[in-house]
Specification:
With 564 residues, the protein is an alpha+beta fold. The protein folds into 3 domains: 209 residues, Hypothetical protein af1432 (Orthogonal Bundle), CATH 1.10.3210; 130 residues, no CATH class; 103 residues, no CATH class. The longest helix has 24 residues.
């Protein structure tokens, strides 16, 4: 009797087959939570871009099937006959389930929330679990690659999917290797690949996670592009698949029939980053969400009665926290009260500290939230939090803003985020940004200014604070935001290899940058840029003050000390 298979209709890939084994995984609560984590925040700009990590994960699994099916014959050429079936099955199931589960560790708000993860805590917990379960220990000093959410996915797999996966693999006659799954998800190849002992495993790793073209990138490019209204060209996935090859040196690449399809992949990614990810509205709303979360969690950590403050018994630390607090208030009386408390503090116990702070009834306790409620290991593994919990908290604060006195910074962020009372960018596009720098600063100044602004968040805070004072603006009315540009730069293009045979049947390889006329985005734009936002009526004044300040940026520390 044949296995009953369900069919899911996907907007990008058409019909995706869901076997009983796959069904047991996707029906699990830890996988179902992905339905409530959006793939991107571009919905602020493109209303249809409401797709989630759930359908993306199914799409990546579908591409894993397709890639492996096409490469199956290529793998067989290098295997001993008696090992073919065993090795094929082993690699196939590890790739398929790593692809399906590669995003189960994503935080609420995807990459925005990921900034609040502790990758060291996650890795420590993984090793604790592996030792507890008497599994092989992962040697982290050898595994340098991997983002926080990828390692969280590994942890979720070990903790929440172990029993199901082991049943599935056992029924297939395959021994599950958690180190291999971790390497596939995090993109860590084997050190012995030079002697080809793990050449096939390294190929499997690069199929899901590489610096050039992989199935994770392909699905999110195709999906983001479609859901954003096709801002980039349509990727010809069938032609790309048809061109996949494993060359004589056991390396993964493409044949010449795939050059046009590769061109579409490159153009699609560059267009999405140029017109979606780096659109000024997306950059701005991403920052608002991150600022909102960071502000609320800092309030809990430093000022909430449930946070860190009750155990602060050092008066200098308390004074420093009060100094930080001043920036959230604009009223002169409130500023004076905080300064008075700061001056008068002379404490020997935490109780004295608490009594003094309770007298300041406008301390922002009410909007404070514990970061661990949303971004801790427990929050993902046990509570299985999603975007819904974050937006619920934001809506709660929106209500509190009407009924309670919150910090001015909170009120302004919530007003911008909920009511779309947006600040305006001084420049809107990366082209405008480059023209602005070229017009206002000498060539040798531009690189130093970009470095000063983008390398240190403390530098950005000082710049904003000085301009606020000079332009008579309030906290939360000027933002200086850094954004990385993840285009296909030339070094990446050089690693996309196209294989062919010359007239003597000798295999040759050529990098895609030699075959295609590429836009040199690295020559056009910096790999990292910044945006400046303020109120519409303040744009000229803020721009003038920014230019003046950055022309003499080496004196910023002195200027900052003077105004404070």
């Amino acid at each position: 009797m044949s296995e009953k298979i369900k069919i899911i209709r996907d907007l990008i890939h058409g019909y995706i087959k869901i076997t009983k084994d796959i069904g047991t995984i996707i029906d699990d609560e830890s996988f179902q939570r992905l339905k409530y984590i959006k793939q991107t925040t571009a919905y602020h700009l493109y209303p249809s871009a409401n797709h989630t990590r759930f359908e993306h994960s199914l799409g990546v699994m579908k591409l894993a099937d397709d890639f492996f099916d096409h490469l199956r014959n290529h793998f067989e050429k290098f295997y001993e006959k008696e090992d073919i079936d065993k090795k094929l099955e082993n690699n196939f199931y590890h790739l398929k389930f790593a692809a399906l589960l590669h995003d189960v560790g994503h935080s609420p708000l995807s990459h925005i929330g990921e900034d609040f993860y502790s990758i060291d805590d996650i890795k420590t917990k993984i090793n604790e679990q592996l030792i507890k379960l008497k599994l092989a220990e992962l040697k982290y000093e050898k595994l340098k690659n991997g983002s926080a959410h990828e390692w969280m996915s590994v942890l979720v797999i070990i903790c929440n999917f172990k029993e199901k996966l082991e049943n599935i693999f056992s029924n297939k006659g395959v021994k599950i290797d958690y180190d291999y799954i971790a390497r596939i998800i995090t993109g860590n190849k084997y050190e012995d690949s030079e002697i080809f002992e793990n050449w096939d495993r390294d190929l499997i790793i690069s199929i899901l996670n590489s610096e050039t073209i992989d199935i994770d990138k392909l699905d999110y490019l195709m999906r983001d592009n479609f859901m954003s209204g096709m801002v980039g060209p349509k990727i010809d996935i069938k032609r790309l698949l048809h061109s996949l090859v494993i060359n004589e040196k056991k390396q993964l690449g493409f044949s010449k029939v795939g050059v046009s399809a590769i061109q579409k992949v490159i153009e699609c990614r560059d267009d999405i980053y140029l017109w979606v990810c780096n659109h000024h509205a997306v950059v701005y709303t991403d920052y608002l969400l991150r600022e909102c979360i960071e502000h609320m969690t800092n309030l809990y950590k430093y000022y909430s009665l449930d946070g860190e403050l009750p155990i602060l018994i050092n008066k200098e630390r308390v004074k420093n926290k009060l100094e930080d607090l001043r920036i959230f208030y604009d009223d002169d009386k409130e500023q004076e009260d905080i300064l008075k408390v700061k001056k008068d503090i002379d404490i020997d116990s935490k109780n004295t500290c608490l009594n003094i702070l309770k007298e300041i009834d406008y301390l922002p306790y009410k909007e404070a939230v514990n970061k661990d409620d949303y971004f801790s290991i427990e929050a993902i593994l046990e509570k299985k939090v999603t975007d819904n919990e974050i937006y619920s908290q934001i809506n709660k604060i929106k209500y509190l803003a009407k009924t309670n006195k919150l910090s001015k910074h909170t009120e302004r962020i919530i007003n911008q985020l909920i009511n779309r009372n947006f600040l305006k960018p001084i420049w809107k596009t990366l082209s405008d940004y480059k023209q602005f720098l070229t017009k206002e600063f000498l060539e040798n100044e531009q690189e130093q200014i970009i470095k000063y602004i983008t390398e240190d968040s403390e530098n950005r805070r000082k710049i904003v604070r000085i301009i606020q004072k000079r332009a008579n603006c309030m906290t939360g009315e000027i933002f200086l935001i850094v954004r990385k540009n993840k285009f296909y730069f030339m070094p990446q293009l050089a690693n996309i290899l196209v294989y062919s045979y010359d007239i003597n049947e000798n295999e040759t390889s050529t990098s895609i940058k030699e075959l295609l006329p590429q836009k040199d985005f690295k020559a056009m734009f910096s790999e990292i840029a910044f945006y400046l936002y303020c109120k519409e009526e303040k744009k000229k004044e803020v721009c003038k003050e920014f230019i003046s300040l950055m022309k003499d940026y080496k004196k910023i520390n002195n200027i900052y000390r003077d105004i404070e």
